[in-house]
Amino acid sequence: MEYRVLGRSGVKVAPLGLGTGNFADPTPEDESIRMLKRAVDAGINLIDTANSYTNGESERFIGRAFAKGLPRQEVILATKAFQRVGPGPNDEDLSRLHLIRACEDSLRRLGTDYIDLYQVHRPSPTIPVDETLGALTDLVRQGKVRYIGSSTHPAWKIMEAIMVSELKGYARFVCEQPPYNLLDRRIENELVPLCQAYGLGLITWSPLAQGVLAGRYPSATDLPADSRGALRGGIYSERINQAGVDVGEQVVRLAGDHGVSPAQLATLWVKDQPGITAPLIGPRTVEQLEHLLPVLELKLSDELRAACDQLVPPGSAVASFFNTAAWMKQRFI
User: Fold this and answer.
1) Which of 27, 206, 223, 243 could form a Cys-Cys staple with 318, CB 3.0–4.6 A?
2) CATH tag, 4-177
3) What's 158-226 look like in SS3?
């Protein structure tokens, strides 16, 4: 397998990462731990979670996996903070108070004394980036965090953070984690060129567009009972529209013509796009993980790339996966 360098860090990661947003909801602990061990055995070394996933249960599952033999030194462990995790006024956002407390809580749940990649889950609308970067820098200097990054940030906020880090000698973001799939390609307009120019990795989420690109939904109003759109509703069901479902149907046909599954094609397309370090796959079962592992070794052909561009042109979107980002205006083709 060809490993990729994460931004300017020098850290090498597999071309797919394992996202753990399904751990505890709906994936039970035993299957989650089997999934972690199988992923690492297959060469996937980036494991991504967040303190807000299932009220911290995702982190706890990973911590118990380490206790049961998952090799900590072989894992690039990534987690995040920003979302509300308690009832208090300081139980959210990116203040020094909250970030340091959140990091210490994550370390306890994860059963480790350091986090390889600590990411701010969303940009703060009110807290100056100086305060956030200062707190993250202290965590790095204390040895609790190795590297820092961002998730679902606009390009200008990342550029601001880079500038402040350079001016004040703070730790510098090594990567950004945005949503990216064939239905929502808007990061290609500004974010991808920014990351390429300034040496940031791109770890992207939702390559299957919640299963829309795998042909999971017969229509935008007919949601399978066990699908994420039906089980979680809200922001998840908002991402499913008929335009996206129509593209998903074309992806199913295209994949069949080229001897791969729709899920494999959708993941491969993201993996081999310019500037991408690794998409995060979020399987619910070991079987789903096994199905996606061959993508580690596959290469996207020029023919397939051009065919996908015909479905949704570069830089455009037919569905929004930025619907949890208040800063992104929802414009589609």
Assistant:
1) 243
2) 3.20.20.100
3) HHHHHHHHHHHCCCCEEEEECECECCECHHHCCHHHHHHHHCCEEEEECCCCCCHHHCCCCCCCCCCCC
Residues with a catalytic annotation lie at 53
Which of 308, 331, 312, 304 is CA-nearest to residue 320? Answer: 331
Q: How many CB atoms lie within 10 A of CB 73?
A: 4
Interatomic CA distance for residues 317 and 112, integer angstroms? 40
Question: What is the residue type of 308?
Answer: C
In this predicted model, what pLDDT tens digit does every residue of 280-333 receive, in sequence order? 999 999 999 999 999 999 999 999 999 999 999 999 999 999 999 988 876 655
Instruction: Please state the three-class secondary structure of 253-304 as a single string.
Output: HHHHHCCCCHHHHHHHHHHCCCCCCEEEECCCCHHHHHHHHHHHCCCCCHHH
Domain ranges of the chain: 4-177
